[in-house]
Amino acid sequence: MQLFQDNNFFILLAVFSIPALIMGYLEKPIRLYGFAVSLVFLWLVMGGTTRALIYLGVFLVWEIAEAKIYLKVREKYGRNRKLYYLFLILSLLPLILNKYAHAAGGVLHWFGFLGISYMTFKSAQVIIQIFDGQIKEVESFPYVYMMIFFPVITSGPIDRSLRFQNDMYRVIPRQEYMDMAGQGLFKIVLGVVYKAVIAAGFYQLEIRLGHGLDLKGALIYMYTYGFYLFFDFAGYSLMAVGASYLFGIKTPDNFNKPFISVDIKDFWDRWHITLSHWFRDFVFSRVTMNLLRSRKIKSHLTIAVIAFFINMGLMGIWHGSEPYYIAYGLYHGLLLSITEIYQKKSKFYKKNKKKKWYRCISGVITFNLVMFGFFIFSGRIMKFI
Amino acid sequence: MSDKTKIYETVMDILVDVTGDEVVKEEPDINLPEEDLIDSLGYIELLMDIEESLGIVIAPTEYTREEMDTPAKIAAVVQSKAE
Q: CB contact, 8 Å: A132 with chain B?
């Protein structure tokens, strides 16, 4: 079974949601029930492949043990950077092995189980926040629940452990829960429309009209694929967020009208928000801090450019080691850098940035740059070069 | 001068430096990201300058952007961390 895909999933989701709704209405905690439902879905998704289940088990034990040990190490040795990086790399190791095995040709399936890419964000962020001194205890139950919470297991949105834990232990007042459940249902329905109607429509346009190998074909493919990608992923994300709400967890939203972005920076605050903010908080900000601290580079603009390339390059590689994913990351690193330099240096920008006509033109350019980015991301560009 | 006022003044000086605009002192409730006065790099410079001048360490994920989007809010966060 595939989550948020098969009819059976939606029937089960409806059935499993009824007890959650009753518990929420009675102001009873939903966490144990939500955990049990997550286990059932895990079994339905991965039960057929024992190897995947074993890898998932090993992965979870590895990551929890690591977090607990690092907590002790951090208490004893303080903000020791060498130890911090060691534990950070250890927490990334399963994903690195998995991606390496995939790139090496798919004979090895190290840590091949559904959701490893998204789970690793959460395990790594726990290590980083232990180093920061923000996480002061690691308990197994909330940790595992956060990792296997079924609505977000396949493709996010990526939650933060402190936020998730707060939600799962909070007693939600009846009226608030009923509002949340209403919003959740609305998001699920909207998500279904996005994915099953609009995305499916764009997909049909793409395969029927977009396969010419001339400029016209490329352009049709680029725009139809871009809209397909948005409605497909935003649709899934809406459903995942909506289903989370029914189980009392306010999973953060992933999209906020990305196609009306004024510039590329604005776009990354609207597109796959939980991913881009994860990278902002745990990669971009760390790279810039280290560069500022080292005092090797004077210009803050240079530091920003380096950090943008590292940030987006890593994001590209995270999608996969195929050259077009890496190119996609570097493309956005370049766009962000050019935007940064232009906005800091240009008098024309400073004078006009708030004017309506400027924002319109800037928005249209951004939209087309973003669409070209998706064309790279799709891999279709390889047919043209 | 009390510690609180001293911290407030220092934070405002840092903000003038980071945003390049004296307006942050005159309008402590101005929304910094909305007015384009601060971006991601600006926030990092802010956190590092606070660490350097006041010895108060704030991690990038400790507060949300909404909790630190005006000069007054930022000063309040730093003051609460100093206690």
A: yes
